[in-house]
Amino acid sequence: MILNTELEYKGNLFPSKIVSYKKDVDSLYFTTENNVVLQLTIQRGSVLRFRYTTTGIFEKDFSYAITKYANRGYNHLEITEDKEYYNVTTSKLICKIAKSDMRISMYDALDKAVICEDELGFHWEESHEFGGDIVKMTKTSQDSESYYGLGDKPVHINLKGKRYENWVTDSYAYGKDSDPIYKAIPFYIGLHHKKAYGIFFDNTFRSYFDFCHERRNITSFWAQGGEMNYYFIYGPQMSDVVANYTDLTGRPHELPALWTLGYHQCKWSYYPESKVKEVTKKFRELKIPCDAIYLDIDYMHGFRCFTWNKEYFPNPKKMVKELADDGFKTIVIIDPGIKIDMNYDVFREGLEKDYFCKRADGPYMKGKVWPGECYFPDFTNPEVREWWSGLFKELVEDIGVKGVWNDMNEPAVMDVPGKTFPNDVRHNYEGNYCSHRKAHNIYGMQMARATYQGLKKFSYPKRPFVITRAAYSGTQRYTSTWTGDNVASWEHLTIANIQAQRMCMSGFSFVGSDIGGFAEQPNGELYARWIQLGIFHPFCRTHSSGDHGDQEPWTFDDNITNVVRKFIEIRYQLLPYLYTAFWRYANEGVPILKSLVLFDQSDTHTHYRNDEFIFGEKILACPITEPNAKGRRMFFPKGKWFNFWTDRIVKGGQEAWVDADLDSMPIFIKEGAVIPKYPIQQYVGEKKIDQVTLDVYYKKGREKSELYEDAHDGYDYKKGRFSLRYFNLVGKKDELIIQQHKSGKFITTYKTFKIKLHGMPFKISKIQVDNVEIAFEDIKVNGDNTIIISKEFTELHIIA
Description:
Layout: E1 18-24, E2 27-32, E3 37-44, E4 47-53, E5 77-81, E6 85-90, E7 93-98, E8 104-108, E9 114-126, E10 133-140, E11 146-149, E12 163-166, E13 183-184, E14 187-192, E15 195-201, E16 207-211, E17 218-223, E18 228-234, H1 238-249, E19 263-265, H2 273-286, E20 292-295, H3 316-325, E21 329-334, E22 338-339, H4 345-352, E23 367-369, E24 372-375, H5 382-390, H6 393-399, E25 403-406, E26 426-427, E27 434-435, H7 436-459, E28 466-468, E29 471-472, E30 480-482, H8 490-505, E31 511-512, E32 514-515, H9 524-534, E33 540-542, H10 558-573, H11 575-588, E34 593-595, H12 596-599, E35 613-615, E36 619-621, E37 631-636, E38 640-643, E39 649-651, E40 654-659, E41 667-670, E42 674-677, E43 691-697, E44 701-709, E45 723-732, E46 735-743, E47 752-758, E48 766-769, E49 772-773, E50 786-790, E51 795-799
Parallel strand pairs: 13-29, 19-20, 19-33, 20-21, 21-25, 25-28, 28-30, 30-31, 32-33, 43-47
Antiparallel strand pairs: 1-2, 2-3, 3-4, 4-18, 5-6, 6-7, 7-8, 8-9, 9-10, 10-17, 11-14, 12-16, 14-15, 15-18, 16-17, 22-24, 23-24, 26-27, 34-35, 35-36, 36-41, 37-40, 38-39, 38-41, 42-43, 44-45, 45-46, 46-51, 47-50, 48-49, 48-51
Helix pairs in contact: 5-7, 9-10
């Protein structure tokens, strides 16, 4: 007979004292009296993994976030114990594990300074409703510690004093401080005493991060289920933390085709075909460069994915080819919801093969989205992903669509509380069957992965292009992204700037915002200022909700159109510079945009700067984010900076006023930089590149720059057919030397560089190329400080 029906709540539970320890190759196991086991794995000298179980048994080790290509290995490991601690030492870190309660402390192996230490450390609460544990971790915040990361949070760049939730959420017209929104990236960076570390909490359940919000000097993170499983990543440079996190969760599998870095035009929705062609024709008439045009849900037959509305688009293959002949690549939207309709072959096939998600007791997960009532594929099943990828054959291989945009993949469901699936929906999860509580945050990621696999297959030998709205850590391997359904407001212009910087420091650099705002209508000034910011975002696209009016570059007035054209032309000139930055990101995990704290963490002034950022390695940009502005104050980080428009030099380490009327914005170039530029094109590939301009900015001292090129599409670059040029600049009082070193087998179409010199402190009297003095007329020395020189030079001396 059971008389007591009250639940017994045990509250927080903690590891007791460690009673045993064993080593298994690169993993160490510590077991406590109350059966808690800590598995400590040495991934690299600067990357340690901490994984806990409260039952003495670990579940199958599986993660969607961690890439199989992550670097492993270390050159030093020493394990000792004393009365109070086990001490694990690598070349970079000392990890102390307290014998009494399993608390962890991390130290720099070189100077023994404390980096991070547990407060309560790992603890847990039993979940009576769902089983398993609510897993928790608390750490002590060090003096003046700052926190960064967490993906797309629309908040101040420094997260200190705030609490955030990770639960991928459809957030139409979100605002400043809205949380959670579209992405779940449970990775943060801590910075104190000029040393940075990162923590990646690889747990896909609903999770929370508290940066000294609840308790003043305590940072904590916890999840509603799953394991306490986190990676500790040490710098001490913040840029190394980001690069190592990106190595762990994956860099993009391919470089993007160069055209994907051009300007894109989108709207909900361009239809019928005559409207699409009217828009594309106007771009060419007005000579505003554009590479891609988008078709939103209205191109489909009744919003059924993989179909066409033949009334609006009677011959899609012919239309797509005609657009391509004019330089426009066609991108189409694909959502996860498949309309319930037995006459619709995609639905029928998914039903017959049992590919749709089901509720706990067997019924299908039914939800309303754009087509009406839908079922949803279980993208966590590899067989479903293979089927989904095959559905792109007609769109991509037959019709010629060049890219696919995955929307609504949080997954979003209309007219229900929570705007998504109920918790009891079941998922395959690569054979690790689970509920939606565990699979929700990776659903969109796995849809994007399946879409990527389809485009890779059917775009071959060209590179795939996918965009996703929802993401979890590691999604950057497959796709680009945007910041979701923002609003046409000055506040959202500021938010877009911060979100792009934050995504880049969270390992996801191929990012942009809906330029001008998706919801509501911008005025011309706001749109122009947003374009000015947008040309510095890796993904550069105007998108808007059609019911608020038009948002093409010519919508406002001629003055605005001219400003927009001018800045998009700058984007196209800088494509080789951006492509080089992308190459660094794809090879080394170096973020394409760098908040000032990433650029110079030693200067505490940078720790709270939101607006200024570094684009690539050498360009400092700062948007104008309020109306009627004739300029703004901005902070200049260390070094000297050339005004892009005037060549006036500003010394770093100070805040200063910068003039910037509507046709300008604050852009500065680092002294010593060599900035490559292409001629202006209306679309990538319009012109054969006959000459590349190198803007060279004088510096007394040394500076290195790079230029990476390949065929700009296809896979030959993976076989060594690329061109990588290193430029070493050495400036003296009476001489400027530029040395060039080239590697790779790719031969570029151009034969010469046009070198444009900026800030030269002397008049040129003599020029030597590869130790031979050259007559001025042979290299076309002009009064505008330009010279034309063979691309094959190895050493150029410009002498006073």
